[in-house]
Amino acid sequence: LGMNQAFAAAGIDGAAWRHASIVHLTLGGPCSRPAGADWDFETSPPHPEPRLLASLTLALLNRGVHFMGAGNAAFVSTAHSQTDIERTIEAFAGALQDVKALGYEKAPPGA
Length: 111
What we know:
By secondary structure, the chain is α+β, with helices and mostly antiparallel strands. The chain has 3 helices and 3 strands. It has helices spanning 2-10, 50-62, 82-101; strands at 14-19, 22-27, 73-75. A 3-stranded antiparallel β-sheet has the order 1-2-3, covered by helices on one side.
């Protein structure tokens, strides 16, 4: 929910949701954001736009956060404290602002 609030605050098309203990992200194209933590729509979430995802991944790394794989998923576990989660959401919100400041908040034409 905090990451979806960050997407809305930054004015960047994207959504975050969970599947069990995995947080998933998509960004770069219009999509609905779940009201809760689960993807509750009949359609599958859109794939993230690769250039935007790469920019977000680097911005997150600059803020001390690493999402696994292509950068669009992360685990949350009992090893993470509430403070860890809050700091991650804060870093995520800042990283979205970094991406927006670079002018990358929309997918490039033809992407």
